[in-house]
Amino acid sequence: MFEGLRKPMDLIVIVVTLLSYGCPVQAIVHAFGLDERTVATWRDRAGQHCQRVHEAIVEQGKLDLVHVQADEIRVKGRKMVAWMGLAMMVSTRLWIAGTVSRSREKELANALLQQVREPLCAFAPCSS
To answer: Organism's domain of life (predicted)?
Structure first.
């Protein structure tokens, strides 16, 4: 993530943290005097790093999924409403799965459950 970057690591961590909490890129550019392309590059690199961690840990079934909490959130968009199903490993508060649907029906819950079960079933037989 930090390889080849010329700014102090502390600044990069602060910027990525602000981005993860929804702070607009333009606000960060203004507050820290950074170029918008630099902030966007850091955001993209952090996202790629998170994807690699997800693939290496979550998708490989290297989790102790004794307790998983799942919930759905109603999301309002421009002229639409969608539902997000999210699952979290309780012991670490790691988000392990998520799915989106236009309706809050059984299929949303089934798709979320399938994402949680899939890595586990790759290493141990799961009943259907």
So the answer is: Bacteria
Instruction: Taking the CA atoms of 30, 32, 37 and 43 in sequence, report the sign of the dihedral they define.
Output: negative
Identify the burial level of 124 via C-beta atoms within 10 angstroms of its C-beta, where 0-12 means exposed, 13-18 middle and 19 or more buried.
exposed
Asked whether the beta carbons of 69 and 87 are under 8 A apart, the reply is: yes
pTM of the predicted structure, to 2 decimals = 0.60
| Residue in this structure with the two tokens 């670490």, named with its chain if needed | 92
Q: What is the rounded CA–CA span in Å between residue 72 and residue 87?
A: 9
Residue 26 confidence (pLDDT) above 90 = yes
Structure tokens at 13: 């961590």
CA distance 44 to 69: 28
Cα dist from 14 to 31, 44, 58, 89, whole Å: 12, 15, 25, 25
Contacts 24+ apart (CB under 8 A), 4-13: 5/42, 7/34, 7/38, 12/42
In this structure, what token pair is assigned to residue 126? 């799961």
